[in-house]
Design a protein that fits this description.
The chain has about 325 residues and is an alpha+beta fold. The chain is built from seven helices and nine strands, in the order H-H-H-H-E-E-H-E-E-E-E-E-H-E-E-H. The strands form two sheets. A seven-stranded mixed beta sheet has the order 1-2-9-3-8-5-6. Strands 4-7 form a two-stranded antiparallel sheet. The chain is elongated.
Length: about 325
């Protein structure tokens, strides 16, 4: 019986040596099914077995294996060669990365919860401010999350009447939007350096309903240059295109009418000094009426909660005690 146990132990040791060579050759992993004994008489082989197990499941099993390695090394004053020491260090790095990304996911979740609290609330404030007795048609404001740290507000102005383009350019209306963005959104989350304004851009979309175009002329020139890029939505297709002529006091199609609506709003928002792109959406003949005559103002603040997220991540990292990421070998 003793001879059998010795033979089994020697076989397990030889098997581990072969697995270790494959593990090193495959850059700290094994690609085929394998067997490891629960115990090896040689403490260094025991550490190698724990190292392999830890590498193959670092997020769940890595730290317990490191605890075993550290305890055995301290108890028996073990010295490891460079090859084994490096694999143990790399396991520590993997475990650190697992813990770090756990904290990243937690910070992201808390950031999302914050914007889900703040976003709809701020949109409701803006919607109430934009719907006044002086505004003949309804305006709605919707909030959407954007990426991990951004927000999007879609301000929709419905054209319930045949409103002249000049009335769509009421400076007070757009001043309210800009003031709200500054005081109710940016100032709540921006810290010094205003990094939250980086990559802030506006997209404006002029919609026309399915009624046939009846022609339109205006006293003041629209001054839309030839070659102006815009997005065109028609018949279910979306294309990136450019104006083929300078659009001044007359329009020739629903496409140009939608473009004119977006352009008029752009002129009122240019003072915000953020990139603005425009689009024209032609609704089909089956979609007629005020619900389809509208302007959509998309405010894309892609980094609004950057400072909030990074501050919370720093707090979580400090509280976790994981310290700096171990240096590689």
């Amino acid at each position: 019986a003793l001879a059998d146990r010795v033979a089994q132990s020697e076989f397990a040791a030889q098997n581990l040596d072969q697995l270790w060579s494959l593990f090193i050759e495959n850059q700290d992993t094994l690609t085929e099914p394998f067997d490891l004994a629960d115990f090896y008489c040689d403490p260094v082989r025991m550490v190698k077995a724990w190292t392999i197990r830890g590498h193959l499941n670092p997020c769940d099993d890595g730290q317990p294996r490191l605890d075993q390695i550290d305890a055995l090394q301290q108890k028996q004053q073990l010295q490891f060669d460079d090859e084994l020491a490096c694999r143990i260090r790399r396991l520590r790095i993997k475990v650190w990365d697992c813990r770090y990304w756990e904290l990243v996911r937690q910070a992201r979740a808390e950031t999302h919860a914050e914007r889900e609290r703040f976003g709809p609330q701020s949109a409701e404030i803006m919607q109430k401010a934009l719907n006044s007795e002086q505004q003949p048609c309804e305006t709605t404001v919707e909030y959407e999350p954007l990426g991990y740290i951004g927000v999007k507000y879609i301000i929709t102005t419905y054209l319930c009447q045949d409103i002249d383009l000049a009335k769509m350019g009421d400076p007070a209306y757009y001043k309210k939007i800009a003031t709200w963005v500054d005081t109710e959104v940016l100032q709540k989350y921006c810290e010094e350096g205003l990094r939250c304004k980086e990559e802030f851009f506006i997209y404006l979309e002029g919609h026309t309903d399915g009624n046939a175009f009846r022609g339109a002329r205006y006293k003041n020139s629209l001054d839309i240059p030839a070659g102006t890029p815009f997005t065109h939505f028609v018949n279910g297709d979306t294309t990136q295109t450019e104006t083929t002529r300078e659009i001044t006091t007359s329009l020739r199609s629903n496409m140009e009418l939608g473009l004119a609506r977006a352009w008029t709003v752009k002129q009122q928002l240019d003072f915000m000094e953020v990139p603005i792109t425009i689009g024209a959406w032609e609704h089909p003949a089956s979609e007629k009426g005020g619900a389809f005559r509208r302007i959509e103002i998309e405010l894309n603040i892609t980094k609004l909660l950057l400072d909030f997220y990074e501050k919370r991540l720093r707090e979580l990292l400090e509280a976790s005690g994981i310290g700096a990421r171990p240096e590689t070998c």
